[in-house]
Amino acid sequence: MEWSAITNLIDPSLFLVIAACWVIGYILKQTPKVPDWTIIYAVTAFSITVTLFMLGFHVRSVLQGILCGAAAVYGHQLLRQTREGMGGSGSRRKEDS
Q: Treating both helix axes as pointing N-terminal to C-terminal, what angle do 15-30 and 59-85 enclose, rounded to 10 degrees?
């Protein structure tokens, strides 16, 4: 499946939510006391909550929130993995080596 097919599923008014999720994920990643595995849950919860208030309390809104959170995480991983693959300054951990 192409990435454009996924972005076509997301309501265009929610692209700002994706950007906000990306920023929140970045801030949480820089916070020492926040375990990495919890970041995806926090971003998804934020995304669903904001989407529910923007689009109304419907199942469609929950699905849109999940897609927004997933798009933010996917975009981050795409850039990070590309940077690491090209030999850039990725954030590899010692246990990943």
A: 60
Separation of alpha carbons 21 and 19, rounded Å: 5
Query: Quick one: tokens of 85?
Result: 């693959």
Between the CA of residue 4 and those of 13, 20, 64, what are the distances in Å? 16, 20, 15
> Which residues of the chain are modeled with pLDDT < 50?
94-97
Q: Give pLDDT tens digits for 21-48.
A: 999 999 999 999 999 999 999 999 999 9
DSSP one-letter code for 93: -
Question: For position 1, what pLDDT does the model report?
Answer: 57
Domain positions in the chain: 16-82
pTM of the model: 0.77
Six token digits for residue 45: 């919860």
Contacts of 51 (CB under 8 A, 6+ apart): 14, 17, 61, 62, 64, 65, 68
Write phi, then psi, for 34 (nearest 5 degrees). -100, 115
